[in-house]
Description:
By secondary structure, this protein is of the alpha+beta class. It has three helices and two strands, in the order ββααα. The chain has a two-stranded antiparallel sheet.
Amino acid sequence: MNTTSFKSGAGLLRRTPAASQGARGLMNRTINALLLWNERARQRQHLSRLDDRLIKDMGITRADVEAEVRKPFWKS
């Protein structure tokens, strides 16, 4: 079995490749969520700055914009 060893204050810890993959997967999902949340916040901020002409061209209303801008960054 292929294992990765780490030194710690309590001694030698061994982590199997499966455990490493699980931690890596969790880290990837966390990073992807943070990137998505950041992008949503950026897009909502940009949307809030559009003038009424552009909003009308998009086929939405100022009320639609305000409702979207008020959403928390973690909600789609």
